[in-house]
Amino acid sequence: MIRFENVWKQYDDGFVALKNINLEIQKGELVTLIGPSGCGKTTTMRMINRLIEPTSGTIYIDGQDIAKMNPVELRRNIGYVIQQIGLFPHMTIAENIALVPKLKKWEPSAYQKRVDELLDLVGLDPATFKHRYPSELSGGQQQRVGVIRALAAEPDIILMDEPFSALDPISREQLQEDIVKLQEEIQKTIVFVTHDMDEAIKIANRIAIMKDGEIVQFATPDQILRRPANSFVRGFIGENRLAQRQTAVPTAEDLMSHSIATVSPKRGLAEAFRFMKEKKVDSLIVTDKKQSFLGVVTLKELEKHYHQEHLLVADIADFDVTTLTKDADVTDVAEIFHQRDVSAIPVLDGDRLVGVITRSSMMRGLAEWEFQKQP
Ligand SMILES: Nc1ncnc2c1ncn2[C@@H]1O[C@H](COP(=O)(O)OP(=O)(O)OP(=O)(O)O)[C@@H](O)[C@H]1O
Ligand SMILES: [Mg+2]
């Protein structure tokens, strides 16, 4: 749909703002451009409607080189929302919204209906707001009108340059949800500039992360969270956001008990039997001196071989035991209890034993985890 091919931009003062941008945006996709101030987001975006021309390279829309298209025609099919709102002060809200539909020669009844629909969409009562002038609206209200004005003529492409930045968090979330819904319903191709990673993750199909005029990573939010391309991306996402995602469900570490009944592989069976009675458990975890996990010995096996006095724990232990790493999530734990006849699952950090999950430690861990989540 929109394709940048080896696009460079050098401004008149010699500053190179974009260095060889290659980017392909699919039809119906919502792509966010994100990156530090001055990295070239606005420059990239304004090339799509030819408010800025590349120094070299080509931009195609539907396979057509836009440098060869009439810029006025081109812009009529591209909605544009800028941070500074850009409403025309001498036109009413209704006139502002209906501007492009009028240019496209819509019937008055059609664009009047559209104005009402769009105002409703962003929670502005048409009867109240239609006939006001921009200066008679709050900043946030003006910005909402800016957003819907870009949608009014149903363009194929919508460019949005930090459209929600002046909004309060609630209106902002509302509009983010509207955009996602709208996107699903009418499948517009949207290029959306933001500084806010949470916003990008919430609305984007794919995120292009920019730095110093280059695209550092272009991938889905999930891929970016899982596999940040480098330390810049990692820093930009923020370590705590990465961590937050990982603790969205309880992990083995949350569900395990730290009081573990362990035994050395060199112990005799009578000793192991006494440990079990003392700790009131029906299995012991076999570890070496350094607390490395080796296996499990069960009461059942002990009873079976008890009369063979020469045997040691090492001889009867099961060394092929299902274990979990401490960051395994609750579904893995449930799966093991469901599929196997085990009463305790060892939890490892590397090969070191750090805990054990039993059905009761799991229930307790879940309850505590829920409790901690309460505000
Ligand atoms: N007309 C111009 N002449 C010279 N340099 C410019 C011009 N316009 C922009 N620049 C420079 O190009 C770089 C990219 O600017 P751009 O507006 O694309 O950044 P941005 O990523 O949108 O930043 P922000 O997040 O602050 O909006 C900046 O360093 C800016 O100073
Ligand atoms: Mg900008």
From TrEMBL:
Keywords noted in UniProt: Amino-acid transport, ATP-binding, CBS domain, Cell inner membrane, Cell membrane, Membrane, Nucleotide-binding, Repeat, Transport
Catalytic activity: a quaternary ammonium(out) + ATP + H2O = a quaternary ammonium(in) + ADP + phosphate + H(+)
Entry keyword Acetylation: no
Main location: membrane
Membrane topology per record: Peripheral membrane protein
Stretches assigned to the ABC transporter domain: 2-237
Domain CBS stretches: 256-312, 317-375
Matching InterPro entries: AAA+_ATPase (IPR003593), ABC_transporter-like_ATP-bd (IPR003439), ABC_transporter-like_CS (IPR017871), CBS_dom (IPR000644), CBS_dom_sf (IPR046342), Gly-betaine_transp_ATP-bd (IPR005892), P-loop_NTPase (IPR027417)
Broad class of enzyme this protein falls into: translocase
Gene Ontology biological process terms in this record: amino acid transport; glycine betaine transport; response to osmotic stress
Pfam hit, one: CBS
One Gene Ontology term, aspect cellular component: plasma membrane
Entry EC number(s): 7.6.2.9
A single GO molecular function term of this UniProt record: ATP binding
Protein localization: Cell inner membrane
Family affiliation: Belongs to the ABC transporter superfamily.
Subunit structure: The complex is probably composed of two ATP-binding proteins, two transmembrane proteins and a solute-binding protein.
PANTHER family per UniProt: OSMOPROTECTANT IMPORT ATP-BINDING PROTEIN OSMV (PTHR43117:SF4)
Name of the protein in its database record: Quaternary amine transport ATP-binding protein
Species the sequence originates in: Parageobacillus caldoxylosilyticus NBRC 107762
Lineage: Bacteria, Bacillati, Bacillota, Bacilli, Bacillales
